[in-house]
## 1
Amino acid sequence: MTQEPLQRVLVTGGAGYIGSHVVFALQETRRFKVISIDNHHNSHPESLARVSQIAKSNLPANATAQDKESTEIDAYQADLTNEAQVRAVFEKYGKGGIWGVIHIAAYKAVGESTEIPLTYYQNNVGATVQLLQIMSDFECTRFVYSSSATVYGTPPHIPIPETTRLQADSPYGRSKVMCEQILQDLTAAEPQRWRAISLRYFNPAGAHPSGLIGEEPRGRPGNLFPLLAHMAVGRVPPDLKVFGSDYPTPDGTCVRDYIHVVDLARGHLLALDALAPGSRIFAGVAADAPKIKAYNLGKGRGMSVLQIVEAMRKATGFEYKYEIVGRRRGDVPDLTADPTLAEKELGFKAPNDLETMCKDLWNWQTKNPKGYGQ
Ligand code: WQD
């Protein structure tokens, strides 16, 4: 049986927490040749070596040379704000040489973005505009964009449908809104050329069940899940602070829609396939209308901070002691997705439950007590 040739796909931020799981999801299919661009600002090159190792170990006995080729990653350490570096990567594969791009690389700390907004706009917006221009020059016009639930700001309704107005309330969230609007304008200007999907992540959590790849933030984690894991494994002092218990939520602490990172990663594969010619998600769209859609990637189940602490206590056996302190700037009471559009149009599913997220995170952390740095 003749095999379809591998499709080259560029993943920006491919060495990161989300990126490495997306690269794994692509390699799992053995349909893609993955290229990664990452400046390792918040990632480790070791992650991609391990992704490739998992893919190789999963090869069937009758693997073809092409199957083996699909487990090799063309990884480039480069900065997306450096035009020459990015252009050099595209030059290597020539016009039409890269089938599509999954753009994940971005700075993503809400609080930090309020302190250094220009850095966020340059890295998250400027670099995206430059990437799209280079893609256009090289006839690469399929784009999956890593957006975020933070584009909804404080949403008027829970769960949140994609039709909710976008009104972020941090430079980070606004950088995501701006990029979604840039994609709207680009696809409207060239509806016959461009196809794009924005994926609005809710709260990714957990790790690949192999325990070989996982979240490894530089320094003390700001996000709740990795912080709880670092505390339980003794990497940071267990001085857990709960940011506010006076929110209009069942137990007064913030509610978020946590989704297993493996499920989130598979959503990118579905989005990539939905950009192929003849895709049903654009079937009803007029030829001269923009080919762009946005989808929530969440479970549709909100969990509070205290529920997460309790779930991690059960998974790790660590007796967390916490102090309720004031609210954190930029936090909103509840971000819970309405996931039905992605389920209906992309066939997206997020079957892994909270217990599995905690178990897989803890498996990663205990197998890698110092992360990739050991
Ligand atoms: C979750 C809840 C905190 C730490 C993050 C990113 C955002 C997006 C999604 C990419 C909040 C509370 C936390 C602590 C706490 N990523 N908390 N004590 O803020 O929902 O969003 O992931 O798009 O960019 O910032 O996640 O894990 O930081 O916080 O009480 O020490 O846990 O207040 O309510 P968040 P988080």
## 2
Amino acid sequence: EKAQIGVTGLAVMGRNLARNFARHGHTVALHNRSYGRTKDLVEQFGDEGKFIPSETAEQFVASLERPRRVVIMVKAGGPTDAVIDEFAPLLEKGDMLIDAGNAHYLDTRRREAALKEIGIHFVGMGVSGGEEGALHGPSIMPGGPKESYDALGPLLEDISAKAEGEPCCVHVGPDGAGHFVKMVHNGIEYADMQLIAEAYDLLRQVGGHSPAEIAEIFKGWNEGRLGSYLIEITAEVLKQVDAATGKPFVDIVLDQAEQKGTGRWTVQAALDLGVPVSGIAESVFARALSGGADVRKAAADAGLPGPSAGSGEHAGDLRADVEQALFASKIVAYAQGFQQIQAASKEYGWDIDPGAMAKIWRAGCIIRAKFLDFIKQAYDKQPELATLLVDDYFLDAVSGAQQAWRRVVATAASQGIPTPGFTSALAYYDGLRAKRLPAALIQGQRDFFGAHTYHRIDKPGSFHTLWATDDRKEVDA
Ligand code: 6PG
């Protein structure tokens, strides 16, 4: 008997994906650079399903039915290229190499183009949900050629998470589309996490609540419209007590957030596409600021002046207002992320259905939330929606939230509590609603120093003012 699917790279993510396939009745070929991991998997979990372990790449390839489906689950970057170089010569036309790592979508585009030359289908596949998700049902975002999805999709849908009975897996679009969407998922994940952290900080510093009390607040919020995996685990982290010191866990962890890079990639890509993903950008920068120990120390030593946190009152119901600010800022972050997906889809001709992305993020992935139902509905109603903010549900939500949102941002500013997520989201919102933006002045400055020209509101064409002359006459440019 041959295997329906193979997994190479059997560290925890690869191992769990392999077990998930086997648990769903598929025969799974196994391969790892060192055989020890392969052996361990079969020894520990062999009774979960049918596995065909191989010591060599050749044996592994020979153990697969055709067209072969080879899932690569190794570190993104060089290691992925090394595995592709090892396997590509062993495969035949129509076989599939499926990269399930967090690859950069430009690497995926390059790899797909190269493998196409020799008739191998390369599928860059986003997988979200961490170790648990990989084992029990992740959200899966496969890109690559459409025809490869016909042979691969059913297996992936089988092992994916289910939301209201429907698989959290869909063909995202050709070439790098899957990895692009996974990257934006992670960017949104960063924004969600930053906003939650700001909410916690305000409840603690302004409200004077303990981490355990805030855990209860988050638990309550999890029952409402904010209900999501990240809110749920926030409550768990906040109620955790450090065994060694008896202090709240959040008070003994070094306050320097790390990152592996997908959030940064999201922002880099957004800059190239010209999409203002300010919420995601602020969350990446907030992590960088927190990690800048030397700069923070210099600032502390110099005693940068300002109010001490929590030195004043909040002009309203803090808990209710923070919930509103969090929800409104979250809407902005998602609106920006979805706009980025739409922009990339257009740029690369991927034809991504944004509603389908919201649909497959409803379960399995890190940003899973009730909220995504509304995003799906918004795009179902209007596939060409310019921004989520103008959809009825979200418009209504921000209308209801905006006064509270402003109070929260005002409190944070007046008490010196950094809330880059809440504040930038509000600035973005006000930027969108402004009748006139000061961008007109910027155009004037550009024309003044560089003759960069401008457009007029009252007639078509490009114009330049002769700023250096006495009469500063306007001429056609
Ligand atoms: C997921 C996660 C996963 C990983 C992040 C962590 O969707 O399952 O996003 O991909 O945990 O990459 O990212 P940072 O280390 O950059 O916070």
